[in-house]
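Folding follows sequence. Below is one example:
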Amino acid sequence: MALWRMGRHARRRVEALTADFFAATGVLRALSAALPTGLRLVKEEQDEMFPKCRQSAMDLKALGTRLAARKAELMAEMSEGMEVS
């Protein structure tokens, strides 16, 4: 499961919690277990993927534009249902 998807799922679970301490503890444990994986993936991108991209013939500006558009889509998707009425 993608890290952002895990975060979105965990956020929804935290928002849905009642005062049940044990439920909250379980969600927080799941979040803290996923964090090292996310940090490892970020380090891998910085140390391995980004240097390879810089050395390639890829159009990095076009790639950046595509990534920014996708990020906007995902952020909009994540914020759905969070509007205050």
